[in-house]
Design a protein that fits this description.
- The structure holds two protein chains of two kinds.
- By secondary structure, chain A is mostly helical.
- Chain A has helices at residues 3-10, 17-39.
- The longest helix of chain A is centred in the middle third of the chain and has 23 residues, at 17-39.
- The radius of gyration of chain A is 17 Å and the shape is elongated.
- By secondary structure, chain B is α/β, with parallel strands linked by helices.
- Chain B has a single domain (8-161), classed as 3-Layer(aba) Sandwich (Rossmann fold).
- In chain B, 54% of the residues lie in helices and 13% in strands.
- Chain B has a five-stranded parallel beta sheet, with helices on both faces.
- In chain B, helix 3 (42-53) packs across helix 9 (145-151) and helix 4 (64-77) runs antiparallel to helix 5.
- Classes of the chains: A mainly alpha, B alpha/beta.
- At the A-B interface, helix 1 and helix 2 of A face helix 1, helix 3, helix 4 and helix 5 of B.
């Protein structure tokens, strides 16, 4: 699929940068939390 | 780790927030008029990525982890089908780089791929503290998409990095 078609499909899902940042930070924070707990033997 | 690795000005990393904004927050003429050039608007992300897509001699670097982040956010905010279609297309376009799990995907992609530029909306990567922490050590410039677009000079960059004379964009950014 070319970029033009992708952008057209994405039109129905438009959002703002603040929302994107919020979701990305939540994902990355979650991954860090998971990694931290996996590394902590006390959590086992 | 060398203190100041050589970087290539034609190699660019867009953090996951910029990649997602390019797809689902950029390009609307309505938003462009409403935001009046707001550097945090998604329109700038579309402009920055269009500049890269329009020039075959510019490389967009990304690790799998970076694309995983963007794909997950697209799936969450839009839908899984669009996210999968985007991933298929960006996989064709990006130059893949590897880095250890747990590293910041954008910074590590830039470091491993010797990129000179990172585009991000993350203030934590752009502030004075960040510059003091890694800016000079990685020889890396972190900008908002709007900052990148404002400073992007394809002709000067081409003449500095490539042989011959710049003859304008050589790719359709919508293909």
């Amino acid at each position: 699929m070319n970029w033009g078609d992708l952008f057209e499909r994405a039109e129905d899902h438009r959002t703002d940068v603040a929302t994107i940042r919020e979701r990305l930070e939540a994902r990355r924070d979650g991954e860090r939390g998971t990694a931290d707990s996996e590394e902590d033997p006390d959590d086992a | 780790m060398p203190e100041t690795p050589d970087t290539d000005p034609t190699r660019i990393v867009a953090d996951a927030d910029v990649l997602v904004a390019d797809l689902i927050a950029g390009g609307s003429k309505t938003e462009e008029s409403e935001t009046g050039g707001d550097p945090e608007s998604g329109t700038a992300a579309r402009g920055a990525l269009d500049a890269i897509r329009s020039h075959s001699w510019l490389d967009l670097l990304a690790s799998d982890q970076l694309l995983d982040d963007a794909e997950a956010v697209i799936a969450e905010l839009a839908d899984a089908d669009l996210a999968a279609a985007w991933r298929e297309r960006i996989d064709e376009e990006r130059v893949a780089v590897d880095h250890p799990a747990g590293d910041h995907p954008a910074l590590a992609s830039a470091y491993r791929g010797k990129a000179a530029h990172v585009l991000s909306y993350d203030e934590g990567l752009r502030g004075p503290a960040a510059s003091a922490s890694f800016g000079s050590r990685l020889n890396l410039s972190v900008k908002t998409p709007a900052g990148f677009v404002a400073l992007f000079d394809a002709e000067s960059l081409y003449e500095a990095a490539e042989d011959g004379e710049y003859s304008g964009p050589d790719r359709d950014p919508r293909t």
